[in-house]
Amino acid sequence: MKRIILLSLLLLMPLLHTAAQTSQKDAITTVLNNWHKAAAAAQFDTYFGLMTDDAVYIGTDPTENWQLKEFKAFAKPYFDRGKAWNFTPLSRNIYFSPDKKTAWFDELLDTQMKICRGSGILQLQNGHWKIAHYVLSIAIPNDNTDEVVKIKSAFDTTLIQKIKSNK
């Protein structure tokens, strides 16, 4: 009887692990979806409440690399107008660290800028997943790269020189 119970437990363990991971993926999906919905509905406190106290947000502009306090200051006028931004997930991949306390993801988003890619890191804090780092990128098809490089060339050249001179 003990062997049957032990064998049953050994056979069930992978299923339990998969179920736990699915549950965590569902929890992260809910956090990310609620975060995007809070921006669309201009719910400032909800949006920023889903981020860690030391969160970093990196926007599409090469100068946008904000600590949470700076990002709140940037975003507040948008939220105060009643609509910040509207990002709707099209697809998402979620991955976990071995200890299951850190997760990272990438997602394709339908936005006012057309398809963008979001990627980031979440941390499990007091039983709740929080966004610790987020990067938003405008997705550019490879066939259009040369056109985009031409458009941004003057800006990039100036910024490159500025960055190099500050080293």
Give the structure's gist in a few sentences.
With 167 residues, the chain is of the alpha+beta class.
- Assign the CATH architecture of the domain at 43-144: Roll
- Largest β sheet strand count, sense and barrel closure: 6 strands, mixed
Helix count equals 4
Shape: globular
Mean pLDDT: 91
Helix content: 40-55%
Walk across the major sheet and give the strand order: 2-1-6-5-4-3
CATH topology of the domain at 43-144, anyone? Nuclear Transport Factor 2, Chain: A
Radius of gyration, in angstroms, nearest whole number: 20 Å
At the first level of CATH, the class of the domain at 43-144 is: Alpha Beta
Distance between the termini: 70 Å
Order of helices and strands: HHEEHEEEEH
Measured by DSSP, the beta-strand proportion falls in 25-35%
- What would you call the structural class? alpha+beta
Task: Give a structural overview.
The structure is a single chain. The chain has a domain of 102 residues: Nuclear Transport Factor 2, Chain: A. It contains four helices and six strands; from the N terminus they run H-H-E-E-H-E-E-E-E-H. 47% of the residues lie in helices and 32% in strands. It has 167 residues and is of the alpha+beta class. The model has no long low-confidence stretch (mean pLDDT 91). The radius of gyration is 20 Å and the shape is globular. Strand 4 and strand 5 form a beta hairpin. Strands 2-1-6-5-4-3 form a six-stranded mixed sheet.
